[in-house]
Design brief:
Elements lengths: L1 H16 L1 H37 L5 E6 L2 E2 L6 E2 L7 E2 H8 L4 E15 L4 E9 L3 H4 L4 E4 L4 H6 L3 E4 L1 H8 L9 E4 L2 E9 L16 E4 L11 E2 L1 E6 L5 H12 L8 E4 L1 H44 L1 H9 L4 H34 L9 H27 L3 H6 L2
Helix pairs in contact: 1-10, 2-8, 2-10, 2-11, 8-9, 8-10, 8-11, 10-11
Amino acid sequence: MEYFLFIVRSAFEDFKRSKMQTFLTSLGIIIGVFAVIMLTALGLGLKKYISDQFDALGSNTLFVIPGQISTSGGGFNPTSTLGTSFDIRDVNSLKRIRDVIAIAPIAMKSGTGKGTVKTENVTIFFTSADFFSIAGFSVDKGRLFDQNDVEKRSKVLVVGPSIAAKLYGTAYSALGKKIAIDNVNFTIIGIIASKGGGGLGGSDYDSYFFGPYTTGYVFNPNKQFFRIGVRVNPAVGLSAVKAEIDKVMLRRYKVDDFSVLEPSQILSIVNSIFSILNAVLVAIASISLLVGGIGIMNIMYVTVSDKTREVGIRRAIGARKSDILSQFLIEAVALSVIGGSLGLVLAELGVLAVSSFFPAYIDLPSVALALGVSSAIGIIFGVLPARKAANLEPVEAIRYE
């Protein structure tokens, strides 16, 4: 143990004498660990954010969407093309199901919206007044559109606070203003309370407009919907209502043309897709760890050359090959751990910077991963230089210039 502590102290004294070289050698590890831990933290935060928003939909909500989608095994497996669209006949048929208490057909329109401050590309969800209760919306200022607006095809919109602030300077400034979207004029009658994600696929509702689906027919002459949201009587099990919805939809569509999903199933699909994406991003970020390991191996070869005479003297006075091997391995691991620790500190600072507006966080497995991977890189890339040092012949090493 005393010998081990001596080697560690000796390594850190060498690092102190060449601070810049130590930093540059560890830079690849620092960047790699920072990138991997930061991406992992953002991934954890995104999953929590999406999960929280789906929880807000409650346990008595169903979505009818195009295509037959299997979530077995937590995977995402569409078994048909998503080309199906629904219409008002489907909405009226589903509305007649006894335990359906609210229904929201949804059509979408993207276009250019001109505000008083700037012009932006915007997205409008055209839906029913029931949408707000299904999605758990509340109004911050003004009012939400109602059934009367739907029946009159009123050209009114409710807007999320983020896009309202972009177009009008502040969210509240949008209230009562006119907005032209693709040359069709609307009046903004309400600002929703900040909702964030929570749409199918984790949509950012704060950046969208919402209008009556009948008004949306001006952009949607075929009067078709890409999704239908359904709120079910909480006293009734979802499975029974899902069976009723299936029965109604099968009167017009094939079994592969639609799916009836609960928020938990949609969340499973989102998480499955995100997990694959996050794994790819982490793999790309890990390339810098490989580069850092190669850098450590190179600098350890230089260190072996610089300490050749020292190694020869130590071998001559009784040091074993295993002692020399452990000396250089410990130095390589120390370099890696220093880099890993600095990368972890930077990641903590990064998470702290974004935590005020996004729920990113670093968990204990991430910390263990950072230090474990950096230590492993030190061992893996330090073995060859350490073996070279251990195999030096004492007499030849002492003569080395």
